[in-house]
From TrEMBL:
Gene Ontology CC terms, in alphabetical order: cytosol
Subcellular localization: Cytoplasm, Cytosol
Residues of the Glucose-6-phosphate dehydrogenase NAD-binding domain: 2-160
Main location: cytoplasm
Family note: Belongs to the glucose-6-phosphate dehydrogenase family.
Ranges of residues in domain Glucose-6-phosphate dehydrogenase C-terminal: 162-207
Statement: the UniProt record of this protein carries the keyword tRNA-binding: no
Source species of the chain: Pennisetia hylaeiformis (raspberry clearwing)
A Gene Ontology BP annotation from the UniProt entry: glucose metabolic process
Protein known as: Glucose-6-phosphate 1-dehydrogenase
UniProt key word NADP: yes
UniProt KW keywords: Carbohydrate metabolism, Glucose metabolism, NADP, Oxidoreductase
Amino acid sequence: TIWYLYRDNILPKNTKFIGYARTKLTVKEVKEKSMKYMKVKPGEEERFDQFWEANDYFAGSYNKRVDYELLNQFINKHEKGPVANRIFYLAVPPTVFEDVTVNIRNACVSIKGFTRVIIEKPFGRDDESSTKLSNHLAGLFKEEQIYRIDHYLGKEMVQNLMTIRFANKIFSPSWNRENIASVLISFKEPFGTEGRGGYFDNFGIVR
């Protein structure tokens, strides 16, 4: 998805992408693992190479502040201009949201621009844990700094439902809460949990 945004010139030209995770990897290894998903079309090869030149990677833990301080130093090397904004996209297990956000707040906040934190669903595993997470985030960041997203809303099937519902007047009188008792959507994937069984046991779809 980031490659598509870069390819279509939707991002600022001086955007830098820095991956952070526990696994020790090189950018070359990340590229090799990603290639099958990138869908590079003929004529885009040069642009694709430029995209990877804008990528970097840093390995560290989720819960040690010293690693985030080192990450901050690593990011600083790429922030040459007078303004530098930082967006942290947390594609991590919900169990480490608290550790990660505390360390970002304490060690990685931008000093010459804005800081934003993007959190993917699920936000906790029930109402109580969701409220706890929201309160935790509120103690670290202002509401306008926090983005809570559901990437499944970008699925073509879901988007098609929205189009059918709101672009066709014939459905408007009947497709509403007064006339529909429940909605069941079955979404079949052509692959398994791929090593994420522990996650699905406690969060998300299966639970």
